[in-house]
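Recap slide: Fe-containing alcohol dehydrogenase-like C-terminal domain-containing protein, sequence and predicted structure.
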Amino acid sequence: MHSMAHQLGSEYDLPHGATNAILLPYVMEFNMEACPEKFANIAKAMGVDTSAAKSIEEAAKMAVDAVRKLSKQVGIPSLKETAFNPADVEKLAEQAMRDVCTGGNPREVTKEDIMNLYMKAYEG
């Protein structure tokens, strides 16, 4: 996520915290399958009752849903509401792939994955 946020900040002069907040639910959804236990714990830490979850994956999804809800409550915009230009998505993804932070992602990521994540964040 940070590697993607770095590109948005440098290309469009957007605050790093804001770009991370915009990307967070989409990157969480992407990474969820790599570490569902951690995401289930995030849900619990956010005060979500995961006791009704039928699987660890379902509990993990509750974390993503909780972050989406919080993002809406505090007015986090989509990328569409920023200076982001979808025509730049391939260039941004290529740069993100070269960013040192990409190696720390819990799930292997491709340029196409990053392009898709940017577009999901754009579409909201």
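The chain has a mean pLDDT of 97.
The two ends are 16 Å apart (CA to CA).
(End of recap.)
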